[in-house]
Design goal:
By secondary structure, this protein is of the alpha+beta class. Helix content is 45%, strand content 27%. Strands 1-5-4-3-2 form a five-stranded antiparallel beta sheet.
């Protein structure tokens, strides 16, 4: 298996199964709110907007990149076929890594 194959399989698993964060439903909106700020600080190409219980990631032209939400303590991502999808996933993973103790 090549490195590219491994990366693509990991992204596929991320999309299919999400990331188990064990976040209570009460804390999910706060987590997404903080992720929104993180996206907007980290990227000049992406704009994050929290819409009720879903974080919407768009490019500067308003095209949808992905939607991120938390269900049953699992962070889920629904990507589009945009060229910015990989960078949005990387920023999401950076946030998870840096904020892993946010609600402990």
């Amino acid at each position: 298996m090549t490195t590219t194959d491994l990366i693509m399989k990991s992204i596929e698993n991320l999309i299919l199964y999400g990331v188990e964060l064990n976040i209570d439903e009460d804390d999910a909106d706060e987590y997404l709110f903080q992720m929104e700020s993180f996206y907007n600080e980290r990227s000049d190409d992406l704009v994050a907007t929290l819409d009720i219980d879903t974080l919407l990631i768009d490019d500067m032209e308003g095209q949808t990149i992905c939607n991120i939400f938390i269900k049953d303590g699992i962070l889920r991502i629904v990507p589009s076929s945009s060229e910015h999808t990989l960078s949005s996933i990387v920023i999401m993973l950076e946030f998870i890594t840096e904020k892993n103790d946010l609600f402990e």
